[in-house]
Design a protein that fits this description.
With 355 residues, the protein is mostly beta strands. It has one domain: TolB, C-terminal domain (Neuraminidase).
Length: 355
Amino acid sequence: MPTVSRSAARRLFSAALLLVLAASCSRGEPLARPSSDLVAIGAGLSGPRGVKATAYARGPVNVAAAAFDDTGRLWLASAAFNDTGEDAVYVVPRSGADAIPVITQVHTPLGLLWHDGALYVASKERIDAYSSFDGSHFASTTNVVTFPAGVGEVNGITIGPDGRLLVGISAPCDHCVPESRLSAAVVSLLPTGGDMRVYASAIRAPIGLAYYPGTSDLFVTVNHRDDLGEATPGDWLAVVREGESWGFPDCYGQGGRACAGVPTPVAELDKHAAVSGVAIVTGQLKAVGTAAIVAEWSSGKVQRVALTKTSDGYAGRVEPFLTGLANPVAVALFPDGAVLVGDWKTGAVYRVESA
């Protein structure tokens, strides 16, 4: 299953398939320029001139997360739409190889992170760390944290410049007030699991997390409420700072008293887009420039959000980056700066680099 709040997922995805994904203009930047600006770049994908795409690996169907270890090996996680406990984490030994299952019988792993020689896996209501990989198995497994039952979907995970883990946890509902303070929040904790605290709150579904390189600026993709009809905003790319409250469920970018004091997103993407993975590029691809690369599950697009630093943060301009995928979710950077995109529906994993 792609990285969205599970309790609202069926409603969100069914609505997304029925609605025309229109531009939303209430906040943020205008949406994508026409896809006719894109050209064939290889591997069946279309993208901007100046980049090329190749098929990197045959990943698992329902590929939902990706990470590279210290040796440059690719790791992938599968997360099916319905949780049956049969998801898995895979290793890809080299380019062109099939993904090999290593950790099996996992429940909805949506976040992968290699840190200090251990693979951290964020899955249903928990984070676990796996270490001492011998080429086929991990010798050691540690439960880092177990969250309260019903807390909400546990999403992307990253490591901050202060060495703390950060993970996004969705609300367990479409528009209710969650009972747990850990729901609808970005949560911070030590890699050992201690000193857990809410980093930022009242965010309906914080999905993908990525730091702007060399800074403490945390970019987060956010899925929005699905009960608002014509008032539905586009999903967001936001810079989320410690201590902030983003107003869920009352504020969704409509302004007025409900949004007083609520931060403004960097950019607004498609409505009902089910935005997922995000990666920040800062010049590795000349045709891309400085931008956030954001996957939209329901539209089948990968968006480029051109980033410009401002006096109080960032401004974003949204335009299409890749088409030709069914349901992109996983986004990551190769060690050399190329962009990785995984197609949840097919399991295909692509490498996009300068032509």
